[in-house]
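Got a spare moment? Tell me how you read both lines of this record:
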Amino acid sequence: MTAGDTELQPHAKGLTRRQKRRLSRGAQYVVFVAAVVALAVTADWGRLKNQFAQWDIARQMFPDVITLALKNTVLYTVSGFVVGLALGMVIALMRLSSVGPYRWLAGIYIEIFRGLPALLIFIFIGVAVPLAFPGTEIVGGTYGKVALALGLVAAAYMAETIRAGIQAVPKGQMEAARSLGFSPARAMVSIIVPQAFRIILPPLTNELVLLFKDSSLVLFLGVTLEERELSKFGRDLASTTANSTPILVAGLCYLLITIPLGFVVRRMEAKAQEAVK
């Protein structure tokens, strides 16, 4: 008797295991649909429309919401990602170093910046640094401050991701490179790191998605009208109009970036799994 035949064997209550699973899944669908219908029936759609869907207010946001707010959000995010990736690579290599102090410093950095909320890092960059170093300006003004703050936060996570990717590369790759006359440093840069990045590309893209949302913390640095990102832009207009429609429009603009990136991540993960098979 095969395993499939066993599943089809009737039990004491007259249902097979497969039938019970189907019945349980069907009950879950029914509960889900009932909950959605209940929410749809009980919600006050008129009040929601008045507060979040005033199209005349939404039209006033264009084109600035794209040409100013979304553009700044993208600039902040990409600059923070570049800083985080560069710093994360250095920290990851320190973490893997045979030199004890390098490993300790990298470990301390990772634990501190993974443990602190990103908000505190922004406040530190915007308040503590000017107090500690009077008259010193971070290159790039607000854009430089945001890149540094986001980069410091992202580097702690990226460092661990890069370290895991490097360690996932078979050790034989390094041995083969050394046998061909490569120095350890050259073998790491030319052979190991490129292979590691193919492995860690999906989680790094996920980190980019997270940075898009963290860029909303730029308001704690104090920005001008021309330096506002999506969240600040939406909140300012919501306060001016006494309506939440700008918040909804800003949220939809975030989705214009994060949903395609999420699709790209899923495609990369699927291709990575196919390559493994």
The radius of gyration is 26 Å. The first helix runs from residue 3 to 8. Residues 1 and 22 are 23 Å apart (CA to CA). The chain has a mean pLDDT of 86.
